[in-house]
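input
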Amino acid sequence: MIRTVRCTFSTGSGITTRSYYLDVTIGYGFIPSYAEQTGLQPGFDSPNPDKAIFQIN
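output
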């Protein structure tokens, strides 16, 4: 598995970084565009999308 993206955001208890991975052997996981959608858009379990920092690895 390789890490494709990191998304860092603030929460009530501090700073959190979520890593997104892709398993290239079976083609399953997060490609950068899908990870961006889940990390930066409201309603996709991101607690603070307007202040998130999205980094492609």
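quick obs: The first helix runs from residue 32 to 40.
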